[in-house]
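User:
Care to share a sequence and structure tokens?

Assistant:
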Amino acid sequence: MQVINKFMMFGIIVSNMPKAKVFYADKLGLKVTNDHRQDDNHWWVSLALPEGGVAITLTTFHENFKPGSTSLYFATSDVAASHKVLSDKGVKLNDVKDDLYGPGSGVKWFNLADPDGNLVHLVQA
């Protein structure tokens, strides 16, 4: 028997859910699939990627974690076009760079920070 079958959810700690939802849904284009709020300190929002895969859940329930301590890597088919779309939406971005995986890898990428300082990397697939 295989104990683990698939990776199904990734949690991101946020301090301000309304700002985080705008960033991930409106700026990055992820789809909100669930929004459950007990109060400001117990709020969960699940997001889906356009091609499926692991769900991303934003949460204000911090336990022992601090907002801004996560790095995410998303694949994009056109890193330059994605950079332009996000720039046009007013997102503060770093420049597109080469060689994400070291010299000679040729993998183009750029990154940005969400409202809590979590790093979001867009990598050309």
